[in-house]
Amino acid sequence: MQIALPGRRDPAPIAGQRRRVGRDVGDEHVRKVLDLTIRLAEVMLSSGSGTADVIATAEDVAQAYRLSDCVVDVFATTAIVSALPTADSPPVTIVRAVHVRTTDYTRLADLDLLVQRITSGGVTVDEAHDAMDELTERPHIYPRWVATVGWAGFALGIAMLLGGTWLTCVLAALTSMVIDQAGRLLNRIGTPFFFQHVTGAAIATLVAVAAYYVAGLNPTALVATGIVMLLSGLTFVGAMQDAVTGNMLTAVARLGEALFLTSGIVVGIVAGLQVATLAGISIELHVDATESFVIPNQPLTIGIAVFGAGLAGACLTVASYAPWRSVVIAGIAAASAEWLLIGLGTAGLGQTVATGTAAVAVGFVATLISIRRQAPALITATAAIMPMLPGLAVFRAVYYLAVDGSYNDGLAQMLSATAVALALGSGVVLGEFIGSPLRYRAGRLGDFFRIEGPPGLRRAVGRVVRLQPADPAQSSDGRRPFSVALEPAQDRAPDPDEDAGTT
């Protein structure tokens, strides 16, 4: 049969194969490299990076230090790195849990530069550990009041985007500052995130009720702004990336956490509305129950909405301690995404389809920006999609369920909010998948965007390019304590004459 059926055959699967290799490095070097990789993985996980990104980046760093048999895995909030046993050495495994999430995009950008230095060669493990010490022990780049002002600007932009009046915008900014300070206080005393979301939603609702009672303001924009602010900390993009790249358990855990914290927002809104009811304040919303997508149709309102989205995206990066050079790019990306969303909505597309399409464009553009600037794509993508979060639909759903008693309308709004959130996360991942070939090989188009340089934090969406030492002889020299340069492995093109059995 083998003679009668010539041709190239697929290789055997790697499952069950012996993957032990003789280590040309000492056990102390192995432990240092594993400790470095798991510290790197912890910073990436705490910043909301996807599981596949963490694994690919950690494996790159391990390979740069000639540890080619390193195994990296992530489960929910636990990172595991291990060096396989060999005939001469026992296995070495390190486990670390990520309990605290602190979004600091400057730290993430500095980590990207460190990984670029390591994968370009010439950095010892001790030097890398010293750089990690400086990176992780350094306080945030901005004072706390700057981050609070950033949240105020974010809320101001969202209120403008939702069509609020000038008084609504001012109240939204002040309310966001109160929510931020309350969250910091609760976090300082160890309050679980669920109750922090309950408190934040209740504050936004009570302020909206007071504004409705005193000044007759529509509470929708105020509460929706607070909801978007609270939803901005949820990692929808990372969860969808985990699901698409096959890390289902971690994806389910992240989506479950997002759903649980969103339920905390719902509880806070219901508590605020119940307080209004006990105080004798009856709120009436004159909106269409089937409407979940408000599209501005006048040049002035469109301009205000686009400017508000850009302001929200830029201020979110400030609140997340991003470098100043990323603020302008994030603002332009958010404004462009909102402009595209309005255009698609005007063309007759529904909210879910329009939002998903805009998210695809965001993911693609974020990939191009990260390739050109050699910076993490997570910063641009997160800032651009945040103004499109379904805060309006969440508030309407809670109002119909808890106040109006219209369960069908409330369920429809809640399903719409869920669909929009999933469309945002999956759309960004799809956009990155479309743009991923430009990172290494895509002809003249890829050469136009790509800047030659060592790989930094990997975006493991699409085909993950396998890296190899640029100098195999240097890689095999275990006496050198320095990292070796990595480059994309050159896949050998199939030879048609070889398949035909000719020379």
TrEMBL record:
Molecular functions (GO terms): transmembrane transporter activity
Question: What are the annotated GO cellular component locations?
Answer: membrane
Give the species this sequence originates from. Answer: Mycolicibacterium sediminis
Region (Disordered): which ranges? 1-21, 468-503
Q: How does it sit in the membrane?
A: Multi-pass membrane protein
Does the keyword section mention RNA-binding? no
Q: What is its main location?
A: membrane
Keywords assigned by UniProt?
Answer: Membrane, Transmembrane, Transmembrane helix
Family, similarity comment: Belongs to the ThrE exporter (TC 2.A.79) family.
Protein name, entry field = Membrane protein
Q: Provide the protein's localization.
A: Membrane
Residues annotated as domain Threonine/serine exporter-like N-terminal:
36-275
Segments traversing the membrane: 151-174, 194-215, 221-239, 259-281, 301-321, 328-347, 353-371, 378-402, 414-434
Domain of life per record: Bacteria
Record's keyword annotation contains Transmembrane helix:
yes
Any single Pfam family the record assigns to this protein: ThrE_2
Q: InterPro entries from the xrefs?
A: ThrE-like_N (IPR010619), ThrE/Ser_Exporter (IPR051361), ThrE_2 (IPR024528)
Instruction: Please report the stretch or stretches of sequence annotated as the Threonine/Serine exporter ThrE domain.
Output: 307-434
